[in-house]
Specification:
Blueprint (H helix, E strand, L loop, with lengths): L1 H90 L1 H8 L4 H7 L7 H7 L12
Helix pairs in contact: 1-2
């Protein structure tokens, strides 16, 4: 009878130990599931950010191609205009004299600045912080 009670006590202890172990494993499993869910959400968000970044990169690349094309067209147009101006200057003596003449005083005064009374007064006259070129020729 003692043996039977001892075996019953051992079985009860083993059962309690298995129950305790099962609860610990259940908690660990729940925590692992929570971490896996968080990681899936993080991966989904990162994949979305990657897709947006790739789309923006493609759009930027396309915009750069369009700008390069526009720059090439503008350069060709500028070369044609320069050639036309050169041809016209060689053909027309009056145009050549006008091109090499000094600008009128009124125009030169627009490009040169008078002295500023204060720094605040000068800031009002500066176009976006850039200086106007001196067109004094």
């Amino acid at each position: 009878m003692r043996t039977l009670l001892l075996m019953l006590a051992v079985l009860m202890a083993i059962t309690l130990w298995f129950r305790h172990d099962n609860l610990n494993l259940s908690r660990s499993f729940a925590k692992a599931n929570q971490i896996a869910t968080e990681q899936k959400n993080t991966i989904r968000a990162l994949n979305h950010q990657l897709a947006v970044s790739q789309r923006m990169a493609r759009e930027n690349e396309n915009a750069q191609v369009r700008l390069r094309d526009a720059l090439a067209v503008t350069a060709e147009e500028m070369a044609r205009r320069e050639a036309a101006i050169g041809r016209l200057m060689n053909e027309n003596e009056a145009l050549r004299r006008w091109y090499h003449a000094q600008l009128p005083d009124v125009v030169r005064r627009l490009h040169t600045r008078a002295a500023c009374a204060s720094a605040a007064h000068c800031l009002k006259r500066l176009p976006k912080g850039e200086r106007l070129p001196d067109a004094g020729k």
